[in-house]
Amino acid sequence: MRIGLMTSGGDCPGLNAVIRGAVLHGIKSFGHEFVGFRDGWRGVVEGDIMELPRQSVRGLARQGGTILGTSRTNPFDGPNGGPENIAKVLEKHHIDAVVAIGGEGTLAGAKRLADAGLPVVGVPKTIDNDLQATDYTFGFDTAVSIATDAMDRLRTTGESHHRCMVAEVMGRHVGWIALHSGMAAGAHAILIPEFRVHMDQVTEWVNEVHDRGRSPLVVVAEGFIPDDRKAAIAGKGTEASGRPRLGGIGEFVTQEIEHLTGIETRNTILGHIQRGGAPTGFDRVLATRLGIGAVNMANDRQWGKMCALRGTDLVRVDFSEALDGLKAVPQDRYDEAKVLFGR
Ligand code: F6P
Question: In the 8-state DSSP scheme, what is residue 26?
Fold first, then answer.
């Protein structure tokens, strides 16, 4: 069997470990051959491929990014897009299976191609951990660990200057990174897209901490929407639609805290640092296992399915199960974190 691997959407620590796991297992266990498509669906649509022999994956588990490159290209766009053209590309390069490694957008494209009869299997990927049908996505643990380390550092400088520190983390639609890194770092408020919180409540938490002589730490996910009409009226941190402007919500929260409490406050946007560099041990193991699992699925011709983590087991789920809405932080998980707020 000749298997084509592709990585698509935002990059994520662990992508290279998936590639390595798939190639090593496929060659050793079945004698398969591997190629990589360059830059996500673009490489599939244009037939831009590179051979992936055994030596090409040496040392890859600890390497961040993706050696294949990535893009947000839609496989149905453009004159060369769509299942018929892609089928011709696969035939021309003698490719029997495609392993699509990506998040919601990538897997939605993979599902449409599999529904059209193409031999596609999937591997879930996103630092946001917002995909249904899998307990964790690789990249999430790394992002949480980077954000936690950054917050520990913000706390020492914050304490020294008696300031309130705000950390804006990734999470456009869900707040898993904010929730986990905030809990790990002992944040005094965690603001996420799933739950609206009024700025008066935030300043109450901040004042409680400050009154005890401590330096408050506030964690904000980039998609948080304050339950505060002022945010929309002032246009601060919001797009015309009322949705927070990415990179703007941390600044809005910072300015409001300083204005409402009089406490000197500083904002730090962690941004793409959360996606760069080496994956954690947990993510390397999960990604390697998913690479192995994806090859097993291709071997069994389980087209239209994704390899997922349930507890500690790998399972095969239909793409449709993975695409059944985003996995949001539930109320009980947020309530657990809230126990730590203020104080
Ligand atoms: O989906 C992962 C993610 O990192 C989001 O948390 C973030 O909003 C987005 O990607 C950023 O995308 P880009 O790298 O295209 O700016």
Answer: I
Q: Which of 11, 128, 141, 283 is catalytic?
A: 128
CA dist 126 and 7 (Å) reads 11
Strands 313-318 and 217-221: unpaired
Model ipTM? 0.95
**Distance between CA atoms of residues 237 and 255, nearest Å:** 10
Look at strands 189-191 and 217-221 and give their pairing: parallel
- Looking at the chain, the domain(s) classified CATH 3.40.50.460 span 140-276
**Does ligand 1 come within 6 angstroms of the Cβ of 172?**
yes
Pick among 3.40.50.300, 3.30.420.10, 3.40.50.460, 3.30.450.40: CATH of 140-276 = 3.40.50.460
Which residue's CA lies nearest to atom 13 of ligand 1?
Answer: 10
Tokens of 294: 């994806």
Q: State what percent of residues in the chain have pLDDT above 70.
A: 94
Closest CA to 281 of 172, 113, 145, 178: 145
Cα separation, 277 vs 19, in Å, equals: 16
> For ligand 1, is residue 126 a contact (CB within 6 Å)?
yes
User: 102 labelled as ligand-binding?
Assistant: no
Say whether 135 is catalytic: no
pLDDT in tens, 190-245: 999 999 999 999 999 999 999 999 999 999 999 999 987 565 545 555 555 555 55
Three-state secondary structure readout of 213-271: CCCCEEEEECCCCCCCHHHHHHCCCECCCCCECCCCHHHHHHHHHHHHHCCCEEEEECH
Annotated binding residue 170: yes
Q: Select from 170, 243, 327 the residue to mutate for testing ligand 1; criterion: most ligand atoms less than 8 Å from CB.
A: 170
Q: Is the pTM of this model over 0.80?
A: yes
Type of residue found at 146 = I
Collapsing DSSP states into helix, strand and coil, what is residue 165? Answer: strand
| 104 Cβ below 6 A of ligand 1 | no
For residue 61, give the amino acid letter: A
Separation of alpha carbons 119 and 231, rounded Å = 48
